[in-house]
UniProtKB/TrEMBL annotation:
Non-reducing end beta-L-arabinofuranosidase-like GH127 catalytic domain sequence ranges: 2-300
Name of the featured protein: Uncharacterized protein
Top-rank taxon, per record: Eukaryota
Signal peptide from the UniProt entry: none
PANTHER family: PROLINE-TRNA LIGASE (DUF1680)
Residue stretches making up the Non-reducing end beta-L-arabinofuranosidase-like GH127 middle domain: 313-412
Lineage: Eukaryota, Viridiplantae, Streptophyta, Embryophyta, Tracheophyta
Protein's GO biological process: carbohydrate metabolic process
Transmembrane domains' residue ranges: none
One Pfam family per UniProt: Beta-AFase-like_GH127_cat
InterPro entries given in the database record: 6-hairpin_glycosidase_sf (IPR008928), Beta-AFase-like_GH127_cat (IPR012878), Beta-AFase-like_GH127_middle (IPR049046)
Length: 531
């Protein structure tokens, strides 16, 4: 990347740019149109990305100097608009998508302590939007989702840099509103890129749900909030959105084949939507940029360290990984047994190694809200621990050393979750989840579930692993109910995912599998339980 930065620096210094600090793949005239409120496609959306990361992650000093020059250039542009017209004219221009301009400028200010960078960051805060959140008005309707989520992320950085508590309150309220009124069972949000009326999602189920960029940015919001509060709810949200909202946008194991929207309507397919699947080298939507970054960050937000006199580690995601806890001289290795629908326990093992005698520290392990307390257990060095309740942390404080091992067994059960819609006629429209996994039914439009008031476990049957050797049909003598499994395979030769269930529909049975496993199949994620 140093060579790329050097080449970009040469472009920035080229006579055509006149030493102004401007650097972009498109001409500065695009910003003239932006400032004149004339048609132009979101020039600020791409202008802030990349260079500051090269300094913060890779330590490239030239990249920082380039960012400072760019900030000077755009600071002069904004100042000129305000002087020639008015501050209101500048605010109006922010109705176009500007990405995370305030976010990157607050980060830059934290590095340079240059008040000009702080002022410029403030000027991208869009008060007409953040002001609504400041007075706690649920007024997201008709706002473009991915224009405004990054502005909230920038507000979070404003809180971290300046300590202004209002922006912590804004982010907290925003997350609460989105989760309670505008979020699907995937953890994602938006319809055709916009928010509409709160708690009215039943009539929004289509192919154009959940723009992928919004999930990428909501993960940032939840990550900040968890860091500030250590509240389990934010870590639970992160898990749900990562599994169902991020992993679902790539076509199986085809890297670089991604989707723009994640369909939520009955009998929809990821392949049959406005954009459909992109291609590895020819698609360059905004959701490709965030999608590629999302898949590069699968190891992010697993571990959080609390420094100080009493060091503590928070393990908040169950992902096989190794963490080098340098400050206390420990290495933590996490192993997770692959889940299956027939063995409904999440089993996690944490092994500790130390170069020297370890020190006293606390290890906190998230016990997710979806875990069943019945049958949950934890052991330390093969001795039972008192188990923490779901929605809290299991905390162990000791002098850790090589050979220590902590194990968890967390029972996972099926459950249903109503769509975010407070109208009585939609109370029976519900999604089916297995722990954090959203299950999609392989149907071509039939969303009537034959529940009849029965418990979920009575009409949904796990598919035994042995059925992967019987790809032709659903018969057999393993105790698997053929009646419940009288579904039609969408792909006759495709093997069952280890997490697979057969469900009874009002007219026929269907297969339920995690949404992220599906590629081109037609599926349904919300079912009418009142049928």
């Amino acid at each position: 990347m140093s060579a790329v930065v050097a080449a970009l620096h040469a472009c920035q210094q080229a006579p055509a740019n006149g030493g102004t600090g401007y650097l972009s793949a498109f001409p500065a005239e695009f910003f003239d149109r932006f400032e004149a409120i004339q048609p132009v496609w979101a020039p600020y959306y791409t202008i802030h990305k990349g260079l500051l990361d090269q300094y913060m992650v890779a330590g490239n000093g030239k990249a920082l100097a380039m960012v400072v020059a760019m900030a000077g250039y755009f600071g002069e542009r904004v100042r000129s608009v305000i002087q020639r017209h008015s501050i209101e004219r500048h605010w109006t221009s922010l109705n176009e998508e500007t990405g995370g301009m305030n976010d990157v400028l607050y980060q830059l200010y934290a590095i340079t302590n240059d008040q000009r960078h702080l002022v410029l960051a403030h000027l991208f805060d869009k008060p007409c939007f953040l002001g609504l959140l400041a007075v706690q008005a649920d007024s997201l309707s008709d706002f473009h989702a991915n224009t405004h989520i990054p502005i909230v992320v920038g507000g979070q950085m404003r809180y971290e840099v300046t300590g202004d508590p209002l922006y912590k309150e804004i982010a907290t309220f925003f997350m609460d509103v989105v989760n309670s009124s505008h979020t699907y069972a995937t953890g994602g949000t938006s319809v055709s890129e916009f928010w509409f009326d709160p708690k009215r999602l039943a009539e929004t189920l289509t192919t154009e749900n959940e723009e992928s960029c919004t999930t990428y940015n909501m993960l940032k919001v939840s990550r900040h909030l968890f860091r500030w509060t250590k509240e389990i709810a934010y870590a639970d949200y992160y898990e749900r959105a990562l599994i169902n909202g991020v992993l679902s946008i790539q076509r199986g194991r085809d890297p670089g084949v991604m989707i723009y929207m994640l369909p939520q309507g009955p009998g929809r397919s990821k392949a049959v939507s406005y954009h459909g699947w992109g291609t590895q080298y020819d698609s360059f939507w905004c959701c490709y940029g965030t999608g590629i970054e999302s898949f590069s960050k699968l190891g992010d937000s697993i571990y959080f360290e609390e420094k100080g006199g009493k060091p503590a580690l928070y393990i908040v995601q169950y992902i096989p990984s190794t963490f080098n806890w340098r400050s206390v001289g420990l290495t933590v290795t996490q192993q997770v047994k692959p889940l299956s629908s027939s063995d409904q326990n999440l089993q996690v093992s944490l092994s500790i190694s130390a170069k020297t005698n370890g020190q006293y520290a606390t290890v906190n392990v998230r016990i997710p809200s979806w875990a069943s307390p019945n049958g949950a257990k934890a052991t330390l060095n093969d001795k039972d621990l008192q188990m923490a309740s779901p929605g809290t942390f299991l905390s162990v404080t000791k002098q850790w050393g090589s050979g220590d091992h902590l194990t968890l067994q967390l029972p996972i059960s099926l459950r249903t979750e109503a769509i975010k819609d407070d109208r009585p006629e939609y109370a029976t429209l519900q999604a089916v989840l297995f722990g954090p996994f959203l299950l999609a039914g392989l149907t071509t439009g039939d969303w009537d579930a034959k529940a009849g008031g029965a418990a979920v476990s009575e009409w949904i049957t796990p598919v035994p692993a042995s059925y992967n050797s019987q790809l032709g049909g659903c018969g057999g003598g393993t105790g698997f109910s053929p009646q419940a499994a009288s579904f039609i395979r969408a792909e006759p030769l495709r093997r069952y995912h280890p997490i697979s269930f057969a469900a009874k529909g009002a007219r026929r049975g269907f297969l339920l599998e995690p949404l992220f496993t599906l590629r081109d199949e037609f599926y349904t994620v919300y079912f009418n339980f009142g049928a």
